[in-house]
Amino acid sequence: MRIETKRTIITEFDLSMAESVHKNSLDEDNRRFVPDEVFETVEDAKETIEFLMNVYESGDGPLVYPVLLKDGTNVGYVQLVPIEEGFEVGYHVGKEYTQNGYATEALEAFLNDIMPRKGLDKVYGICVSENIASKKVMEKCGFQKEYEGIGEYQGESRQIAKYAFVKGKM
User: Fold this and answer.
1) What is the per-residue pLDDT across 127-156, written as a single tens digit (0 to 9) for each?
2) What Å distances lie between residue 155 and 16, 34, 84, 101, 112, CA to CA?
3) What count of other Cβ atoms lies within 10 Å of the Cβ of residue 129?
4) Per-residue DSSP letter, 68
5) What is the block-wise mean pLDDT of the chain (170 residues), using blocks of 10 residues?
6) Residues 94-103: contacts with CB under 8 Å, at least 24 apart
7) Which residues are within 8 A (CB) of 108 and not within 5 positions of it... i.e. 6 or more apart?
8) To the nearest whole number, what is the mean pLDDT of the chain?
């Protein structure tokens, strides 16, 4: 996969990205909102990248793609994950690169590519309710809130916000 936007490139992971994945995962927001996506060591990041590279071939699991700036700097990722009611998108931009619109730019481009590729008319976005930045990204990308309240999030009962994006309603 290769998707280019004005400022970013969405591509596939390779093992050379382990250090940047590790560093981007360590910020306090990532620890607070998606603790299962924190990689305490470069080796932990490398193992996950190896797994994700295998998913590209098998198609069985989460499809996660790094978001790079045009100069090659890895700033985060976008993903499409199978869930019970269909598919959920996710994204993360490392703290050092936030508030520049990279998540919104990458997510819009990713939706425009991945939905037709996978034959999807609808995808979800789910976040912890207090994750205001994530909610703003989804709203800017045309997601509509379907639910806010108690729900299961990463195996725990938490206050969540669930959004849906329907193709053609952006």
Assistant:
1) 999 999 999 999 999 999 999 999 988 888
2) 31, 11, 14, 30, 30
3) 17
4) E
5) 96 96 88 86 96 92 96 96 94 94 97 95 96 96 96 89 85
6) 94/23, 94/24, 94/25, 94/27, 94/30, 95/27, 95/28, 95/29, 95/30, 96/24, 96/27, 97/24, 97/73, 98/133, 102/7, 102/8, 102/67, 102/69, 102/75, 102/76, 103/76, 103/133, 103/137
7) 5, 141, 170
8) 93
Q: What is the pLDDT of residue 77?
A: 96
Cα–Cα distance list, 32 to 25, 36, 44, 133 (Å): 11, 10, 19, 13
Residue indicated by tokens 């990722």: 77
Pairing of strands 156-166, 122-128: antiparallel
Q: Which residues contact 168 (CB under 8 A, 6 or more apart)?
A: 121
- The residue assigned the tokens 């379907």 is 146
| Type of residue found at 73 | T
For 13-168, where are the E strands, in sequence order?
Answer: 63-69, 74-83, 86-93, 122-128, 144-153, 156-166
Can you tell me the distance from the alpha carbon of 39 to that of 21, in angstroms, rounded to the nearest whole number? 8
